[in-house]
Amino acid sequence: MRRLAAVAWIAIPLAGALVLSGCSSARTNTDELQVVANPQAARPAVSPAVSVKPAGQVLPGGAVSAVAVDEKTSTLVVAVSQPPSLRLYDLNALASAPVNMPLYAPAEKLTATPGRVEIAEPGAGVVQELSLPERKLTETKTGGKPASSVAVGADRLVAMGEAKDIRVLPASGPARTIAGQLYSADDVVDTGSGVVVLDRLRTAVFSVDVAGGKIDEGLRAGDGAANAVADSYGRVLVTDARAGALLAFSAGPLILRQRYPVPGGPYGIAYDAARSLAWVTLTERNEVVGFDVRGGEPVEKFRFPTVRQPDSVGVDEKSGRVIVGSAAGEGTQVIQP
């Protein structure tokens, strides 16, 4: 499979390109990054029935909306849609019953940093912080429909979904808002060399100047940008669910570095920094694939059969175990590569 480097027709700065905001059918088609007249966010492909036994161990449970791993405490956090709750598993004792913690609404996204998991609950207009090992939940009311939350230095950045902006929640003082150019703010990623926001409606990524309070340049991210994660090399990796690809953007400055074909409906993505592996779920095939992303193009290292509708994925960097959540209610899968 050939290498696809950044090409000029994709690297189009967005400043000044957007004429109208919103998503009405009356929009003039002058936006170089707009895919269709009435954009819709990419969704995971509907999975077929499982035909191959899922690899590894499957923990029973309801429909999973998100998974995350806290490396500090070896805790697997699984967000279940009904009833909205978290299930906390000890990764060193998976046979033990999980600790259940109720949520206000289903979690859209879990983002882990050592000893802390950020939880976005758009149906309740709140983000919560789970501190570990204390298992304490602290809520912040944001209003609207927060799609994701991440800790960046002393701040928390909340992608506010259809509100088209990012809420900056400082450790002290009033919150502020960063807006402009977005059709939707669906995920915010700290790459270490810059903050990037994912816009699923526009199927694009944008640099965020947090200190300056503005959205900077933007680039098309395929035909159906779905999910994003930072890697160890100052890049953000994005799954393109419609075109079947894995994209890699540097963040400072924002440049498309790689576009690698990944057939099978790529959707969920997680990154193992200890092994430079990007784990991508393929919902058309009920599979998860591990790519080594250290070189000029991804190299497939692992491929495993999964539970049905593998929309979410996480990784335990201590052991290398991969966690796959079934949005169809067929459990949480733990795989040791």
Automatic annotation (TrEMBL):
The identity of this protein, by name, is Lipoprotein
Point out the signal peptide segment: 1-26
Q: Which organism is it from?
A: Amycolatopsis melonis
Q: Which InterPro entries match?
A: WD40/YVTN_repeat-like_dom_sf
Keyword Ion transport attributed: no
Q: Which domain of life is it from?
A: Bacteria
Q: Which UniProt keywords apply?
A: Signal
SUPFAM superfamilies in the record: NHL repeat
Keyword Signal, does the record have it?
A: yes
